[in-house]
Structures are given as C-alpha cells and as structure tokens.
Amino acid sequence: MALPLRHELKYLITDMQYRVLKSVLTPVLHLDKNAVRNGGSYHIRSLYFDTVFDDAYYDKIDGVKNRDKYRIRIYNLKDTEVFMECKTKAGNLISKRTVEIGRELAEQIIAGDPYGLEKTQWGLLGDVYREMRTNLLHPVVIVDYEREAFLHPAEEVRITFDKHLRSGLNSVDLFNPHVPTVPVFDDEQNMVLEVKFNTVLPPYIADLLSFAIGGEAIQQAVSKYTLCRRYEQK
Fold it and tell me: Which of 5, 69, 81, 113 is buried most, with the most CB atoms less than 10 Å from its CB?
C-alpha cells in the first residue's frame, strides 16, 4: 500500500515572529488534542538512529532527495506511549510510518538486539530488523523540544512551533528524564516552524503566514536531527 505523501515547509523563526504568527493563526486554526490536553504545548523526545556509516546524517547534509530516518519517540518524558517511527523523504514530499511498541521492546532495540523483529506483522519493524542486521542501525542522539501545534481541516494543514530545541549529545538513555541536554541554537528564543499539508496550502493560510513572517523567514531544509549532532567531531 502506497504511503500518503505530504508537503512540508520549514523555517527558522524568532520569538517575535512566533508571537505575531500565533496571534493571527489562533482565530483560524485550533490546537491539536495533545496541546489542548497539556495546557497548550507538550514535550517531545526522540531518539534518532543511524547506520554505521551515518547514512541518514550525510544523506541530509548532501541533499539526497530520497531518504529515511528512524527514531523512537515519547511524549512528556513518559513511557506510557512509545512509538517506533520512520520518516521518509521522497523528493519534496514526506511521509511517516508509526508503530506503538512499548518500553520493553524499545529498550531491546536501543540495546542493539533485533531478536524477534523479523517475525513481526508490522512492516516498519521488519525494516528496522533489516537495517539493524545489514547496516548496523543504532541509536545516536536524543532530540528534545517543546511543540505547539495548530490544525485546520482544509488540506489537513498542520502548523507546528518547535521550541527550546536541545541535544542529548552522546547519551541514548531515552527514558531518563535527567539526561543532560544542551541548546542547539545560540539564541534559545529561536525555533523551528513547520507547515504540513496534503496538496495545496490554502491561500488564506498562506497569506497569514506571509503577513506574519514576511520575507524575513526563509524557507529552508531545517533538520532537528542534524542540528542536534552539531557538537560531534566528524
């Protein structure tokens, strides 16, 4: 079955641009259920994986059009919901596969043990097994940030503000809330704006974005994963 492909636009924005944009989006879009449930925003922690040759890292740096990134994700530093994910880039489009796996299996994968994954009914976990066996897929960096997400039903628009982006450096201790992290941006008020939609961004939403951030925010291929590996010697 073909995966649904969506557009994704990314920007680096300042706190002032965020405040203006939020003020114009709030009357038109609504917060997603996770943001509502957590008082307006929620914490995301992802543990990203890469091959023994850092293929995901270098493919991104080199601008390879078609690539995959594997990660395990939790919310609000809790282990009640744990997800294995693969984000796929296909040219200018993206898709994401997600399987809820639970903490025990997550810790098994983090430890580098692929036992049993080859028998799974989930294609994603089968791919993880293949990558662990053939390319030595392994955990490399923790990515932490706070997310505020807005939705609109037209074209399934999803606009997210990812704030306080921090790197876990060399730790892969996903479930430890006390893992030391460091800010990625020199100005901690900077954040990543992501705009996702199916086919065409509705013109009135595009106009709101243009009004709020103008020409000061330049669309760019921002990768939280590569940003959080900036401290490594390569």
Answer: 69
**What does the pLDDT look like over 184-230, one tens digit per residue?**
998 888 999 999 999 999 999 999 888 877 766 667 888 999 999 98
Which is more confidently placed, 205 or 4? 205
Task: Please enumerate in sequence order all residues whose Cβ is within 8 A of that of 201, keeping only pairs 6 or more positions apart, or say none.
Answer: 7, 9, 155, 157, 195
Closest alpha carbon to 119 in 128, 111, 110: 128
Alpha-carbon gap, residue 48 to 11, rounded angstroms? 21
Give 217's contacts (C-beta < 8 A, 6+ positions apart).
Answer: 11, 12, 13, 17, 193
